[in-house]
Amino acid sequence: MNDPEKNRPGKVKILVTRQFPRVGTDILSGQGFSLTCWPEERPMTYEELSENIKGHQALLCTLTDRIDKLFIRSNPQLEIISQFAVGYDNIDIDAASAAGIPVGFTPDVMSEATADIAFGLMIATARKMFYLHKTILKGEWGYFKPRGNLGMELRGKILGIFGMGRIGMKMAQRCRAAYDMEVIYHNRSRNEEADTLLDAQWVEFPELLERSDVVSVHSVLSDETRGIFDLEAFCRMKPSAPFINTARGPIHNEPDLLAALKAEEIWGAGLDVTDPEPMDRNHPLLSMENVSVLPHIGSGTREARDNMSRLAAENIAAFYKTGTLPHIVNPGVLA
User: Fold this and answer.
1) What is the 3-class SS of the chain, one letter each residue?
2) Could you tell me the strand order of the sheet in which 268-271 lies?
3) Active site includes 186?
């Protein structure tokens, strides 16, 4: 692994790939690090990132930056990658570990904000809020229809959490408190805290699909979860169940989701993530009655983004001061 001299921030150049909240960059510049900050709102292209990283020992990046095996192999001077996100599927972790590069991330600080979005999308989808708002904009708010625009109530329903981690826990807590929902979940392993605090029940994936009145996705994106919500999975869900995804777009197969909605295999969908992103403005999902889509704003609060910037900066600062990271994806490289 790389063995950078400790306490040498003045010699370290950091490439900052986006205009992150200044709380993080202020920490780094205040400690004497040399920062190269990408000046534009748009993300760099892969080619621009590959060119700009030259001469930099540290990288502060986010999900829009592709850090693959070629990028890592082409930059032997790179000593640390710090990700402004809780996810890191844009980074080839195996390649980084093989090169001895620790990868930092920012867990938990966006859990409250993302759980709020999941909870809001669940309600919006159950009551067709996005679609009905559009009818007002189109001048279609007409007379009262006793059997029209009917949604579904959530009290006492069964919530199925796919991925009972920090965000899944907070979503489940909201649903229990607001609607007295029963909670079932599927993880690779049981979450004892959820079992105890929420009286939640671990179930196999097929049972989660078949029993849930609402399915909410909070898992990481991995080879195991990529495309796991396909047409077969949607057909196992109740026709009255909404599907909510605030984790990663590729966890669901978007053409299959569209097909399931058209066939009324599920009630609707609330999405903060799509595949690809950004979604095409003419995508048929955007005009469907039981679909609510947001532009990936799960962490979009001042508090969450400031804390993400702070943690990403603290990972870099700690690495050069102590040789460790407070929040690391691949701790084996520091062994």
Assistant:
1) CCCCCCCCHHHCEEEECCCCCHHHHHHHHHCCCEEEECCCCCCCCHHHHHHHCCCCCEEEECCCCCECHHHHHCCCCCCEEEECCCCCCCECHHHHHHCCCCEECCCCCCHHHHHHHHHHHHHHHHCCHHHHHHHHHCCCCCCCCCCCCCCCCCCCCEEEEECCCHHHHHHHHHHHHHHCCEEEEECCCCCHHHHHHCCCEECCHHHHHHHCCEEEECCCCCCCCCCCECHHHHHHCCCCCEEEECCCHHHECHHHHHHHHHCCCCCEEEECCCCCCCCCCCCHHHHCCCEEECCCCCCCCHHHHHHHHHHHHHHHHHHHHHCCCCCECCHHHHC
2) 201-202, 182-186, 158-162, 214-217, 242-245, 268-271, 291-293
3) no
Q: How far is the C-alpha of 245 from the C-alpha of 262, rounded, in Å?
A: 18
- Domain 111-293, CATH: 3.40.50.720
Which CATH class, in words, describes the domain spanning 9-109+301-334?
Answer: alpha beta
Asked if 10 and 293 touch (Cβ cutoff 8 Å), the reply is no
Q: Which candidate in 248, 252, 310, 327 is catalytic? A: 248
- Judge whether 296 counts as a catalytic residue: yes
pLDDT tens for each residue of 77-130:
999 999 999 999 999 999 999 999 999 999 999 999 999 999 999 999 999 999
Common-topology check for domains 9-109+301-334 and 111-293? yes
Token look-up 């392993």 returns: 189
Spot the catalytic one: 56, 186, 296, 305: 296
Domain ranges of the chain: 9-109+301-334, 111-293
Band (3; pLDDT cuts 50, 70, 90): low
Catalytically annotated residue among 51, 192, 193, 277: 277
Q: What does the block give as tokens for 188?
A: 């690779």
Q: What phi-psi label fits residue 279: left (phi over 0), alpha (psi between -120 and 50 degrees) or beta?
A: beta
